[in-house]
Amino acid sequence: MQNEPNILDPLAVAQTWHGQGRSVALATVIETWGSAPRPVGSHLVIDGEGNFQGSVSGGCVEGAVIAEAADVIASGTPRVLEFGVADETAWRVGLSCGGRIRVYVERIDG
After folding, report:
1. Helix-, strand-, coil-residue percentages of the chain, each rounded to 5
2. pLDDT in tens, the chain (110 residues)
3. How, if at all, do strands 100-108 and 24-33 pair?
4. How many CB atoms within 10 Å of residue 92?
5. Integer-rounded Cα radius of gyration of the chain
6. Are the beta carbons of 16 and 4 closer than 8 angstroms?
7. How far apart are CA 87 and CA 66, in angstroms?
8. Opening angle at CA 59, ends 56 and 60, nearest 5
9. Coil, strand or helix: which one is 35?
């Protein structure tokens, strides 16, 4: 991502990508319980081509969030995703740390 302003800030990246005419979704950690890899307010920005910047969890959880973001970009309908050890998908997506997280995914429009 050369020529990106402050590539460490996913919100700045989202603004830049949107300004370039890309379809963009923003994922935000909205709630955590127990041990969670990233705090509330952490962001992951995803474009329509599957490029991403930032982090909401790490590992396979982010892969699942990126996949959901593609649907959010296409539909425009935001989603709340939940991952945790009580969830049957916890081991599959790599959240075996004993915590749970909720992630809000929304399309960035106008």
Report:
1. 30, 30, 40
2. 444 445 579 999 999 999 999 999 999 999 998 878 889 999 999 999 999 999 998 777 889 999 999 999 999 999 999 987 554 555 555 555 567 899 999 999 86
3. antiparallel
4. 13
5. 14
6. yes
7. 19
8. 95
9. coil
